[in-house]
Structure formats: C-alpha cells, structure tokens
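Intended use. Records like the one below are meant for learning the mapping from a protein sequence to its folded structure. Do not use them to infer anything beyond what is encoded.
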Amino acid sequence: MEQLVTIELFGQPYTFKAQSDVSNAKEVADHLVKEVTKIETQYSSKSSVNKLATLILAALNIANENIKLKKSHSDLLVDISKKSANLIHTLDRAVNG
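Structure written out for the chain above:
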C-alpha cells in the first residue's frame, strides 16, 4: 500500500510515495535530512556551497557509508565462513578420529 512521506530540506517540504514499509522510508528520509544538516553545518561559513552541492555531498557521504557497510558485511561473511569450516574440520576429526 502506498503512503506519503514528507521531509523538509532547505526550508521546503518534499513529499514522496513509499511503496513498502513507511517507517523504513521515513528512516531513510530522516537520514538524508541529517546528512544535509551536517553538511550545512560544516560549510555554514562558506557561501559558495549551494543547495545542489550540499545534496551531492550528503549523497556521497551516504554512498560512502553504504560501501563501508557492504565491505564490512562481506568481510564478516568471509570470517564466519572460515570459522565454520575450521569448526566443521575440528568436529570431523573428533568424530572420525
């Protein structure tokens, strides 16, 4: 069921349709607002950073977080796989002598 989610960026409301879990869509939107606010705060003294640049920097920060999490997740899966293989090998030795 579609629901509408509204966020505010640069003093303007933006509404979009959430096709699935509205609480997740709201969380994603709130994360974007948080990143935009962080960029605005970091560059508040520089008048040369416009809205588009702020959005791009926020998007790059979020993309960077995403890539780091994917890498961390991948590393964790490799570690779990290695430990599982070692555990299976140890159990096989214990059972089979």
